[in-house]
Design goal:
- By secondary structure, the protein is α/β, with parallel strands linked by helices.
- It is built from 12 helices and 9 strands.
- Helix 3 runs antiparallel to helix 6 and helix 9 runs parallel beside helix 10.
- The longest helix is centred in the N-terminal third of the chain and has 17 residues.
Length: 274
């Protein structure tokens, strides 16, 4: 069973971890450079593997991720997370938040690689609390903190404080735009990792992004080394939303906004003007 020792070191199957690192060290760097044009140092790669190992050990006693092997995790957690690095680097300087962080992906890897002050956000408090000693062990505890609560509550506590947000496999694009809008400063960016969004999801998101204050910066497709596809959407906060946000907790998912909602509001305003 994984546990934390006297000095915070993560105790677990260290022999297997060392063996895995000996086999895969250099592989992640090579994949990122050759497939995605992203360069990281050997030291950064080692920290990322240490992060993955720590999460896998904690996962034995707490459900942080469905990925059960470090080999799969190298692709589906580390490679996938680092795909967002150029997009996060392109955002304005300032606070970074990872929404629905789960096991800390992509939040911890991007904290390591960007040097940004980082907030990991998840509604399950015990999950984010489990990530705090991992951050300390990796040497990023001074710039990484956690928030165990709902995104809507965070928006009330820290409105317009974030320069960049990420969301990976969390919710529909439309819901993410709604949740992110009150958190982001003007010019801030939302980086969304998606697998295969439906046409309906895209139509709704693109139909409500302007009323929510966003413009689409890019829509890029990437192929991971296992052959799976990722699309990364980047939205920039260009204006204040046309409605008061956040709505009540859970409304973004239970009763998501659609273009019709804003068309109706526009029609109501036109009648009032008459």
């Amino acid at each position: 069973m994984a546990c934390f020792g006297q000095h915070g070191t993560i105790a677990g199957n260290e022999h297997a971890h060392r063996a895995m690192r000996e086999v895969f060290m250099g592989t992640l760097r090579d994949i990122l450079a050759t497939r995605h044009g992203i360069d990281i140092t050997e030291q950064q790669e080692q920290i990322l593997f240490d992060d993955l190992h720590a999460i896998m050990e904690i996962n034995k006693i707490m459900n942080l991720t469905r990925i059960l092997s470090e080999e799969d995790g190298m692709v589906l957690h580390l490679e996938d997370s680092v795909l967002g690095l150029p997009y996060v680097n392109d955002a304005p300087v300032g606070l970074y938040g990872d929404l629905g962080t789960g096991g800390g992906f992509p939040g911890i890897p991007l904290c390591v690689l960007t040097g940004r002050e980082t907030l990991l956000v998840d509604s399950v408090k015990k999950k984010v609390r489990a990530l705090e000693p991992v951050a300390e062990e990796l040497g990023v505890g001074d710039r990484l903190s956690t928030y165990g609560g709902r995104i809507e509550d965070l928006a009330l506590e820290r409105p317009r404080e974030f320069s960049v947000l990420t969301a990976r496999a969390l919710s529909s694009l439309g819901s993410l735009l709604e949740l992110a809008s009150p958190l982001l400063r003007k010019g801030g960016r939302l980086v969304c990792y998606k697998a295969q969004p439906t046409e309906e999801e895209l139509e709704i998101a693109f139909g409500i992004m302007k009323p929510l204050g966003f413009e689409l910066v890019c829509d890029d497709s990437h192929e991971l080394s296992d052959g799976s596809t990722r699309r990364i959407f980047v939205f920039q906060k260009a204006a204040n939303p046309r409605i008061a946000l956040p709505r009540r907790v859970g409304m973004a998912q239970r009763n998501p906004l659609t273009p019709v909602d804003f068309a109706q509001k526009s029609g109501q305003k036109s009648k009032k003007r008459r």
